[in-house]
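Methods — Computational structure assignment.
A single polypeptide chain was analysed. Its primary sequence is given first, followed by the predicted tertiary structure written as structure tokens.
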Amino acid sequence: MAIEVSKSNIKKEIDIMNSFGTRLTGSKGNNDFIAYLKKEIKKMGFETKSDVKKFKRWEATNTKLVLHTKDGDVDVKVASAHPYSGVTGPEGITGKLQKKGIGKDIVVFRMADFKKLTSRFPFDQKRSYPKDVKLGKQYKGPVTTSFVKTVALLIQSFIGCKGAILIWQGMSDEMVEGQYLNFILGYMGVPALWVNETEGEKVLKALKAGDTATLTLEGIIEKKAKGESFCAIVPGKKDKEAIIINTHTDGTNCVEENGAVGMLEMMRYFKKHKPERTLIFVFTTGHFRIPDFSHKHGIVDQSTSLWLHNNKALWDGKGKHIKVVAGVTVEHLGCTEWKDVNGVYQQTNPVDVEVVYTGNKVMDDIYFEAIKGRKQCRTVTLHPHNLLHFGEGQSLFNVGIPDIALVTAPDYLCVVSDNHEMDKFNLDLAVEQTETFIKVIELINKKKTKELGKVDGYNFGLGRA
């Protein structure tokens, strides 16, 4: 099954995407990227349909942290600001450092990497290729640590602390620099800054001495920012049934999120090779502002859920509505593997483990058929587990659409940096993955609707990993 994917096109469009800067939800970079995607799709001859949501947007513009010790002021390097935590004026806020506190206090949190949290809680592995590829035994890293442990910050914000300092521990300074985490909490109204472990030692020393600090987090609060999601339809030979291919357009760097680049190539391919079923390409925003952009079809959900709620005629099959029989989610193409090794952050493999959720056995078999002949491939497939299905494929799964969803999760996934993490991007791998998902769509189209089956549902307890 020969597939025509242009390596030069993908590289060019990655560079164009990077030229828009950081593309956080509703930002100028995000909106400029969306405009570019719509322009390219129009060039192909396809129309787009948009859904716009207004929301309260936060963006940090300046950060600073100064400790006031008995020996004088000490500057502390800030790794990043906690998204949607809060803002200060240019003078910052000054308060006593405390482990716990209210009112005028600045609370210090130690955010140590997990050492004992088993990966069998969030993950339930099905198959792998090669057969010896497995997920790590521990569920750890900056994303995991922040998602679990910053809940304490949310609780503290209700109590009314003045500000917060979050200290990464057990992770190298290089790994935690620029992390845009945690992005799933509501607006807290408490300015919070991340510092690395080295700088954190200064903070802990000042905490022990009972010192004060001045924390500055200047930012923009845009009360009616625009968040735009859109879709484009590639007509198939069958117009009553469809496949959704989705991703999100907002992101932090060259891999988070570059799925739209792969989807443009997929659309170009299917313009030349008319598919059996209609293909609905969905580009959502809001992944980095889920509290404002989800319409829950389950206990937890992603930003695509809002698009599904607003566009039922394009997927639910009721009456004269189109029936979507399968879903394909494309996220985080071309990820290399980087890990801390003896405290040094470095590339440990040119191909990170591709984490792929498959909604049932048929979808799992289709995916493994599609990766045959790959030159670069390390992959595991997962069963959604304990209400966890990371990435935008969860929204499809939650409404009963059998899905195949790529959501590789390197530790640099949420890093904002000047080079957009391009030193960690594998172009050849991104090309192979795009070809794989074109094959996935063609294989799905060879199946009858009944053969595709229904989603298996979530598993609970400890999974296989």
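Note: Residues 123 and 463 are 6 Å apart (CA to CA).
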